[in-house]
Amino acid sequence: MPGLDGPRLYAHLMSERPALATRIIFMTGDTSSTDTMAFLERTGRRYITKPFDVVAVTSLVSESLAAMAGGAK
What we know:
This protein is mainly α. Helix content is 56%, strand content 11%.
């Protein structure tokens, strides 16, 4: 994302469209970074690590949609 990283996007959404921010699933290839992991933990949002496959993405999205339908975060 040229000029915009995940934390900045998330902060913008939390400010402007908080309901949308709760629907984010992050993807990252930077799980060795303590800053990245701290950010992901602070948000409480689901995430998937690269490389990933279609089955993993499908499963994560399905779980997230089911959680939203059940009133979970």
